[in-house]
Specification:
It is a single chain. This protein has a single domain, classed as Endonuclease, Chain A, CATH 3.40.960.10. The chain contains five helices and four strands; from the N terminus they run ααβββαβαα. The chain has a four-stranded mixed β-sheet, sandwiched between helices. The N and C termini lie far apart (57 Å).
């Protein structure tokens, strides 16, 4: 099935998709900030540029989009150019596993949340992050 948008419009559409400063990230960060949690965002010096990082506690948080990261519940492969999208999303999933393995092998704490988890129960996501921080504070 051919793309319904021209090449120029498709390019413009794809350029508008943000890799950082997404509404999801902003939502979680605002809640953490309100609770007094201080963090760094999109730290380039750390593998995978985590959405939220607290180096003091060796904690990184990733907020994974259901579409781009292949959520088993909500991930959908587009019907057009299917082979390209399958390969692209598969590579994203593989990269996520590499990043997780990297942090675990270096005794970092890593939390990953799906987009739908944040949207369905933000309070639970925030509580899990804060509980992880509290547990790490006690271990210092």
């Amino acid at each position: 099935m051919p793309d319904v948008l021209s090449k120029e419009l498709r390019r413009k559409n794809m350029q508008a998709i943000r890799a950082k400063e997404t509404a999801l990230e902003i939502l979680v960060r605002k809640e953490l900030w309100k609770k007094g949690i201080r963090y760094r965002k999109n730290v380039r010096g750390l593998m995978g540029a985590p959405d939220i990082a607290i180096k003091k506690y060796k904690l990184v948080v990733f907020l994974d989009s259901c579409y781009w990261h292949g959520c088993p519940e909500h991930g959908v492969i587009p019907k057009s150019n299917r082979e390209f999208w399958e390969k692209k999303i598969k590579r994203n999933i593989d990269r996520d596993m590499e990043v997780t393995k990297y942090y675990k092998s270096r005794n970092w704490n890593i939390l990953r949340f799906w987009e739908h988890e944040v949207k369905q129960d933000l309070d639970s996501v925030i509580d899990r992050i804060i509980n992880a921080i509290n547990a790490l504070q006690k271990s210092l």
